[in-house]
Amino acid sequence: MKPLRVLVLMHESLVPPDTLKGYSEREIDEFKTEYDVVEYLRKSGHEVRALGLGDSLTDLRAAIMEWKPDVAFNLLEEFQGIVSYDQHVVAFLELMRQPYTGCNPRGLMISRDKALSKQILAYHRIPTPRFAVLRRGQRYRVPAKLKFPLFVKSVSEDASLGISQASVVHDVDHLKDRIHFIHDQTRSDALVEEYIEGREFYVGVMGNQRLQTFPVWELDFGTLPELAGIATRKVKWDRAYQKKHGIRTAAAHALPDGMPGYLDKLTKRIYRALSLSGYARIDFRMRPDGSVFVLEANANPNLSLGEDFAQSARVTGVDYGELLGRIMRLGMNYQSPWRMQDV
User: Fold this and answer.
1) What pLDDT score was predicted for residue 158?
2) What average pLDDT does range 76-105 have in this prediction?
3) Is 288 exposed, middle or buried (0-12, 13-18, 19+ CB in 10 A)?
4) Inter-axis angle of helices 114-123 and 105-112, to 10 degrees?
5) 210: buried, middle or exposed (CB in 10 Å: 19+, 13-18, 0-12)?
């Protein structure tokens, strides 16, 4: 790939330093994705600018108008402190006719709204746990159609915010307590769904029209009890907790016959049904009987070197630098409405 002008977008608090020297492992974890992307893009010969955004798009507009980047590498996960507003920044890039990496605004909006995405998946007869949405600030009835144990989470937050071992409930009283917790702590509606006990798989996928999936990746919960095997913030981000319980992710092993091919096809169906583009990670659970349920789709998943998406790509021979290059090519070739208008 020829050298490009790459504007890397991130939260203003996550603009990485030029060197990791003097930073603790915990401090580095905060901005590791941003550091890895900027560092490897520069190593690949690209001219890179890191732009931190807070609550204004003024600097973004100025950078696009004055520097004229070839592509904006989007690492934003929120805007103005609101996770669902990242889609509006991408919509702004569309209005500016600025090529960008990752998912389009429509796909971001649909995948971010877990209830809406589950409704779309159900329409397409894609297996997902039965669920109900309990609205914040409204009276509700405990859904009688759902069978315990149930899993309670925010309908819109990601990165396991609000998820803990207490998210799995076994009776009405604990269910009500957890719904109130989600309403109060995340200030969002609560999504209640039937808990799927079993193995947890992740499948990375890239593409706009033609799609490529990576090998099935598994979250191994180590020594945690079966009903404690959920992806809490401690499971995902606490290194000491991971080490204590032997929690790790790796290529899935001992899969039932035909399962890799089934997950490949199912991942692509989900990706298209939710209008995703660029790249994504689809999360699944498989019960002991082999039945599979999609938990959610993650548009613009964690791109940190050594994390699930990059590791599963590496197994196929795609190293980290090449992965970032492919993501940029997909972004530059994505057929945004303004491109179609110019044809």
Assistant:
1) 66
2) 94
3) exposed
4) 100
5) exposed
Which two three-digit tokens encode residue 144?
Answer: 């009688």
| Range 278-297 average pLDDT | 97
Cα 36 from Cα 32, distance rounded (Å): 6
Token pair, residue 234, equals 């401690």
- Domains by residue range for the chain, with CATH: 5-101 (3.40.50.20), 130-194 (3.30.1490), 198-333 (3.30.470.20)
The alpha carbon of 139 is separated from its chain's Cα centroid by a whole number of angstroms, namely 31
Structure token digits, residue 340: 């179609």
Helix or strand (DSSP H, E) at 197: none
At 161, the pLDDT band (50, 70, 90 cuts) reads: low
Average pLDDT, the chain: 93
Among 30-39, 45-54, 113-122, 140-149, the range scoring the smallest mean pLDDT is 140-149
Q: What is the pLDDT of residue 342?
A: 58
Residue with tokens 């009500």: 176
Q: Which of 296-319 are b and which e, b meaning 16 or more Cβ less than 10 Å from the residue's Cβ?
A: bbbbbbbbbbebbbbbbbbeeebe
pLDDT of residue 81: 86
Q: What angle do CA 280, 31, 245 make, to 5 degrees?
A: 75
Token digits of residue 98: 């600025």
Counting residues of the chain whose pLDDT is more than 70, the rounded percentage is 97
**Residues paired with 282 in a beta bridge:** 203, 297
DSSP letters along 77-120, please? S-BTTBGGGHHHHHHHHHHTT--BSS--HHHHHHHHSHHHHHHH
Q: What per-residue confidence (pLDDT) applies to 84?
A: 85
Chain-centre distance for alpha carbon 96: 25
CA distance 80 to 280: 23
Contact 279, 330 (CB under 8 A): yes
Dihedral-angle region of residue 116 (phi above 0 means left; psi in -120 to 50 means alpha; beta otherwise): alpha
pLDDT score of 164: 82
HEC assignment per residue over 101-113: CCCCHHHHHHHHC
